Amino acid sequence: MNFLFIPFLFLIWRTFDFLIIFFSQKVIPYFGFFSYKDDLPGFNLPNWLSSLANFDGIHYIKIAKIGYSQYEQAFFPLYPILIKFLTPLFSNNQLLTGIIISNISFCLGLWVFAKYLEIDHWKLKIWPLIFLMAFPTSFFFGAVYTEGLFFLLVTSTLYFLKKNNYFLVIIFAFLTSLTRLVGVFLIIPIFFHFFNKNKKFNIYHLISIISPFVGLFTYCFYLFKTTGDPFFFFSAQPAFGASRSTHLISFLQVYWRYFKIFITAHWNFQYFVSIIEFVFFSFVLFILILDLFKNLGIKNLKLNKNFKLKIENYDLLGLNFFSLVNLILPTLTGTFLSIPRFSLMSLSFFIYLSQIKNVFVKYFILGIFLILHILLLGYFTQGYFIS
After folding, report:
1. Nearest to residue 158, comparing CAs of 124, 190, 111, 121?
2. Domain boundaries, the chain
3. pTM above 0.85, yes or no
């Protein structure tokens, strides 16, 4: 692949999303039921830009401006820190700074992800990028959310791991777990990478494995010093009214909860959002399980006494386990809420879809993604919670 093609792909994606936002404002009534929505006009940006800070976005901006308020510790610190220190470069406008950080990060992340796929001589390396950019919630990569930055940090960790540059692995893995909790689980692909190496451990290997924990520990130490609770990022979750529990609940129990919702709840906008959450989780989980079987060398479920696993690529297996944890971890709070957005970082999902041999199936999935992308982005920017 000509890597100059990546910025071209990014510009197509960015233009497509801006057109969706522009026309959505003409056909979808504004709802805007989220905290601090009245602060957005104060940044003096057109609606098609400021709408990218709806819901969580305005919290990241407030943290960058004045620091953490009560319960905002649920949002990890690296993204708002970057907004705070880079804001003077962009007219002291935190909202504009957040958008620029997210979009530059995502464009660079696409380039790094393509380089990562190229290492294994991936024949269809353009398709994982296409599926990722067309995914119904990929617009969060360019919003005032952590998705763009987190994507860059995760792909950089994976890429430099494959290149055996452990110094950069340590840096990026550390920063990743300062951006989102699931970043700590980069220990999984890092461990699988070293598991397949036939050489002795050195200090870089050891630090690489523990570096995601160091990032999380750093934030936990800060929370302990400021709130007395090192896990306040978790304790604060119910305060946002997201029906999350601080007691761990299996995703099988969450399935049962959603079945009851479908049977008893009234048909309204949130009812259909619940359907989307349920379908997204089920579909992504199904694909990741298929990918797991493929990476383990399991072609069918008929195991006999001579059965042996045939693992050809430990790096892809480690990425699969990370993708599964990324998908399942949020459901342990008792809901599929935001799963359509969290699914973005289950990168094995997009790699597996790119390997589908049936062209009709591949384009059918792509078409469904694009239709849902238009709908979800339109409603999100008009102030409807969709993920």
Report:
1. 190
2. 5-381
3. yes
Kindly report the three-state secondary structure assignment for every residue of 13-71. Answer: HHHHHHHHHHHHHHHCCCCCCCCCHHHHHHHCCCHHHHHHHCCHHHHHHHHHHHCCCCC
Structure tokens at 13: 């994606």
Q: Which two tokens stand for residue 293?
A: 């079987």
DSSP per residue over 119-180, as a string? HTT-TTTHHHHHHHHHSTTGGGGGSSSSHHHHHHHHHHHHHHHHTT-HHHHHHHHHHHTTT-
Contact 99, 144 (CB under 8 A): yes
Largest Cα span, the chain: 69
Cα distance between the two ends of the chain: 33
Q: What is the pLDDT along the chain (387 residues), one digit of tens a residue?
A: 666 789 999 999 999 999 999 999 999 999 988 888 999 999 999 999 999 999 999 999 999 999 998 889 999 999 999 999 999 999 999 999 999 999 999 999 999 999 999 887 555 578 999 999 999 999 999 999 999 999 999 999 999 999 999 999 999 999 999 999 999 999 999 999 987 765 567 787 889 999 999 999 999 999 999 999 999 998 887 766 556 666 678 878 898 889 888 898 888 888 999 999 999 999 999 999 999 999 988 876 555 555 566 777 889 999 999 999 999 999 988 899 899 999 999 999 999 999 999 999 999 999 999 999 999 999 999 999 998
Helix (H, G, I), strand (E, B) or coil at 283: helix
Rounded distance between C-alpha atoms, residue 280 and residue 380, angstroms: 17
